[in-house]
Write a structure and sequence with these properties.
Main location: nucleus
Number of strands: 0
Number of helices: 30
Keywords: Cell cycle, Cell division, Mitosis, Nucleus, Repeat
Order of helices and strands: HHHHHHHHHHHHHHHHHHHHHHHHHHHHHH
Subcellular location: Nucleus
Helix content: 55-70%
Shape: elongated
Radius of gyration: 38 Å
Distance between the termini: 97 Å
Largest sheet: none
Length: 544
């Protein structure tokens, strides 16, 4: 668009000042300039768009106030008063501004933007004037005039940076709302949001900036919510260039894409409507570390409380679950860790992890968690057990029979599985924290644990003894309670568990007898025969 030359006061036409206001030039003192400007401010404040005669009368004054003397004035009070006048001039002369030069309009709006920095200090004697300036600009949408300028983006970037930098916890709701009105009108009524302008918003969501200025984060969050329909396309374009096309140079925020996706999802999932398919693409990357980063991100999104992403985007959910069988060990490990959040926050999705009858997983080769419970990597098998046990300890309803079955299968070689089952038994069977029905659901645990005593490993036998004394018939109970506990337990055991328990007591009794005999020998006078006998007892004890 071509702009005509800036209109200037006619050479033979004087500038008309409001009644009682003398000429304002560089020849008078700053104090006098301020005094006269205050009267000019009052005049423009009282004018409205219908004041045609006054608008024409003070046109030359409006042009004069945009001169270099005022826009470059070193005095802060002078600049503030001039900015207030200019804001009112845009209001009064709307929709046509008296300033027609491209360069002059840019200078004016950059000047006004710089004055908005004064909003930072709410205790300043001039704060009310700064607030008036902001309120006026927001109400009139004055910055929308800049859409006609070729380099309007420079102005908008400075405006957004300024507002995000000055917002603080001393500002009231009105200040925040005017800032939002000002920025949202630029986003929603313009032709689009450039990457540089988008960066000024998104940078406030990065953890380091978020923790530095929470008010700026809240402002950015509310702005994104308000403009979601308009800005979603710009956000999608940014992530498409970084995630799909690999153009990290498009933005200084490229290295923070996953942090940004997580934040944007928590603000409003609609902001990422077009981004989710891009994440599905990255899940299939040939780079294991890249897949790991995406799995970590999606685990947070799917596992977040109240998240509906899995039901709203089934293809992405299916692709994510496929990472349980990833060739890269860290990816499988991260997938299993996610299962814990899934079980606790989204028990409705647990079926997709465990149940072959799920309509969604019907054609897959096996149940994800079950496969991982047999993973060749011990760390992964361990995490499967811990995941299920922790969920069960929180609420037994969170783990179905199939999940408990995975733990049951691993008791032959997993100490964690045995200890986890013992903890569930103590909580739900011994203490009856969830009622008889839940206790019945895991009543098999007591038999399963005692059956382990039949293993040849001395470590297994010792673990069963420890579990029995700590979880099944806790040694911390008083004698009467302990006997009741033992009585009910013994009466409910299956035949093999009874035999195992009897064998355990028999071995313990034998060991106690051997220890007593050893102590008796130790009390006798030292002799070669006595030493030989003691050594024999020790060998027998160590072999038991």
């Amino acid at each position: 668009m071509e702009f005509p030359q800036q209109q200037k006061p006619a050479g033979d036409s004087k500038i008309t000042y409001p009644p009682g206001v003398k000429e304002i030039t560089e020849k008078i003192s700053n104090d006098e300039v301020v005094k006269r400007l205050k009267m000019v401010v009052k005049t423009y404040m009282d004018m409205d768009q219908d004041s045609e005669e006054e608008k024409q009368q003070y046109l030359n004054l409006a042009l004069h106030l945009a001169s270099e003397f005022f826009l470059r004035n070193p005095n802060k009070d002078v600049r503030l008063l001039v900015a207030c006048c200019l804001a009112d001039i845009f209001r009064i002369y709307a929709p046509e501004a008296p300033y027609t030069s491209h360069d002059k309009l840019k200078d004016i709006f950059l000047f006004i933007t710089r004055q908005l920095k004064g909003l930072e200090d709410t205790k300043s004697p001039q704060f009310n004037r700064y607030f008036y300036l902001l309120e006026n600009l927001a109400w009139v949408k004055s910055y929308n005039i800049c859409f006609e300028l070729e380099d309007c983006n420079d102005i908008f970037i400075q405006l957004f940076k300024t507002l995000f930098s000055v917002i603080n916890n001393s500002h009231n709701q009105k200040v925040q709302m005017h800032m939002l009105d000002l920025m949202s009108s630029i986003i929603m009524e313009g032709d689009g949001v450039t990457q540089e302008l988008l960066d000024t918003i998104l940078i406030n969501l990065i953890p380091a900036h978020k923790n530095l200025n929470k008010q700026a984060y809240d402002l950015a969050k509310t702005l994104l919510k308000r403009t979601v329909q308009t800005i979603e396309t710009c956000i999608a374009n940014f992530f498409n260039q970084v995630l799909v096309m690999g153009k990290s140079s498009v933005s200084d925020l490229s290295e923070h894409v996953f942090d940004l996706i997580q934040e944007l999802f928590s603000i409003d999932p609609l902001l990422l409507t077009s981004v989710m398919p891009q994440l599905e693409f990255k899940l299939k990357s040939n780079d294991g570390e890249e897949r790991l980063a995406v799995v970590r991100l999606l685990a947070k999104l799917f596992g977040a409380k109240d998240s509906e992403l899995a039901t709203q985007n089934r293809p992405l959910w299916q692709c994510f679950l496929g990472r349980f069988n990833d060739i890269h060990v860290p990816v499988r490990l991260e997938s299993v860790k996610f299962a814990s959040h899934c079980l606790m926050n989204h028990p409705d999705l647990a079926r997709d992890l465990t149940d072959l009858t799920s309509r969604f997983l019907r054609n897959l080769p096996d149940m994800f968690l079950k496969v991982r419970s047999h993973d060749p990597e011990e760390a992964i098998r361990h995490d499967v057990i811990v995941t299920i046990i922790n969920a069960g300890k929180k609420d037994l309803n969170l783990v179905n029979d199939q999940l408990l079955g995975f733990v049951r299968e691993r008791t032959l070689d997993k100490r964690e599985a045995m200890m986890g089952l013992a903890q569930l038994f103590k909580k739900y069977c011994l203490h009856h924290e969830a009622g008889k029905e839940q206790a019945q659901k895991i009543s098999w645990i007591k038999d399963k644990l005692l059956h382990i005593y039949y293993q040849n490993s001395i470590d297994d036998k010792l673990l069963v003894e420890k579990i029995f004394a700590q979880y099944m018939v806790p040694h911390s109970l008083d004698t009467e309670e302990k006997m009741k506990c033992l009585y009910y337990l013994y009466a409910c055991l299956d035949t093999n568990a009874v035999k195992a328990l009897n064998e355990m007591w028999k071995c313990q009794n034998m060991l106690r007898g051997l220890v007593r005999e050893l102590l008796d020998l130790h009390k006798l006078p030292a002799s070669e025969a006595n030493t030989t006998a003691m050594f024999g007892k020790l060998m027998t004890i160590s072999s038991e």
